[in-house]
Specification:
110 residues; alpha+beta; elongated
């Protein structure tokens, strides 16, 4: 099994829709760190699991310097973002989304 990891940095803003009062309901920004893990039993015709630049295009190009609430069709929690990111790359099996030094979410396919 081949495994590759791509680290992506994204600067973006968002606001959360919550069932309780929180300052995170206000528009605010993060310098997100996203790590995407991809696997393949066999390499593609180019000798890769996935082209790193394709992963970057699918994630960073869609999210960087954006208001995430205008780009993503769900409540933009780190957990929801991790799952969405994983779904964008067919070879992906795990994603880490870090919105700040102490706040990190993981999503891993079953």
């Amino acid at each position: 099994m081949y495994t590759v990891k791509k680290r992506i940095e994204v600067s973006a803003s968002h606001s959360l829709k919550l069932s309780y009062e929180s300052k995170c309901q206000n528009q605010h920004g993060h310098n997100w760190i996203i790590i995407v893990w991809c696997q393949a039993k066999d390499l593609n015709a180019d000798g890769m699991v996935v082209d790193f630049s394709h992963v970057k295009q699918k994630i960073q190009d869609k999210l960087d310097h954006k208001n995430l609430n205008e780009v993503l069709p769900f409540n933009t929690t780190a957990e929801n973002m991790a799952k969405w990111i994983c779904e964008q790359v067919p070879e992906c099996f795990k994603v880490m989304v870090q919105e700040s030094e102490n706040n990190i979410a993981w999503y891993e396919k079953d």
